Amino acid sequence: DTGVSQDPRHKITKRGQNVTFRCDPISEHNRLYWYRQTLGQGPEFLTYFQNEAQLEKSRLLSDRFSAERPKGSFSTLEIQRTEQGDSAMYLCASSPRDRPGPGNSPLHFGNGTRLTVT
Amino acid sequence: AQSVSQHNHHVILSEAASLELGCNYSYGGTVNLFWYVQYPGQHLQLLLKYFSGDPLVKGIKGFEAEFIKSKFSFNLRKPSVQWSDTAEYFCAVPYNQGGKLIFGQGTELSVKP
């Protein structure tokens, strides 16, 4: 299966520690998205890349969060000085560039990284 | 700003019952609409999508959804559910550029065998 891959699947950390997650998108997809999902809620958009360029960041993404996609392939999401409120599932998705004509290319999601901050 | 609301947080059905999950969106312009499904322990998967044309859209596993522009709705339906349909269902709409999606809060469907 050459879907979106995320690592690690689970991360438990103590408050104040830094954590980094990795996402490997589907190889021919040039768009990559990070979402956060908490219990009972739908995924919330955090940021997205087109190739290596980070084109948009949500207001949800505080200064403690940083994402990179240095070569336009895999991406990392780092959270510095973690807080208990950061506990969530962090989802990565990728999509190809939009086709000509109406409509958006669907997002392909990974299994997510579940972060627990104690 | 665009938004998506799903009316039902948790739906419990017996096998063979009919299903309808509500989804309403706020955007009044050209709309693309999606339903995603997340089976237990699996990633979010596309169930079906509406871009234009026939407002009745058919997806995988016997699901369909109807786009009703006058009601700003895109409800998901299935005539006869199976135990394997137990999952969480999310309605989503793109906003701005770049293919980003806004998701509803999700509806958890439990199907009793």
Structure characterization notes:
The complex is a heterodimer of chains A (118) and B (113). Chain A is mainly beta and 118 residues long. Chain A is 0% helix and 47% strand. Chain A has no helices and eleven strands. Chain A has strands spanning 5-7, 10-13, 19-24, 31-37, 44-50, 53-57, 65-68, 75-79, 88-95, 108-109, 113-117. In chain A, the strands form two sheets. In chain A, strands 2, 4, 5, 6, 9, 10 and 11 form a seven-stranded mixed β-sheet that branches. Chain A is globular. Chain A starts with a strand and ends with a strand. The mean pLDDT of chain A is 91. By secondary structure, chain B is mostly beta strands. Chain B is built from no helices and twelve strands. In chain B, strands 2, 5, 6, 10, 11 and 12 form a six-stranded mixed β-sheet that branches. In chain B, strands 3-9-8-7 form a four-stranded antiparallel β-sheet, with no helix packed on it. In chain B, strands 1-4 form a two-stranded antiparallel ribbon. In chain B, strand 5 and strand 6 form a beta hairpin. At the A-B interface, strand 5, strand 9 and strand 10 of A face strand 6, strand 10 and strand 11 of B.
Fold blueprint:
The complex is a heterodimer of chains A (118) and B (113).
Chain A: E1 5-7, E2 10-13, E3 19-24, E4 31-37, E5 44-50, E6 53-57, E7 65-68, E8 75-79, E9 88-95, E10 108-109, E11 113-117
Parallel strand pairs in A: 2-11
Antiparallel strand pairs in A: 1-3, 3-8, 4-5, 4-9, 5-6, 7-8, 9-10, 9-11
Chain B: E1 4-5, E2 10-14, E3 19-21, E4 24-25, E5 33-38, E6 45-50, E7 56-58, E8 64-68, E9 73-78, E10 87-94, E11 101-103, E12 107-112
Parallel strand pairs in B: 2-12
Antiparallel strand pairs in B: 1-4, 3-9, 5-6, 5-10, 7-8, 8-9, 10-11, 10-12
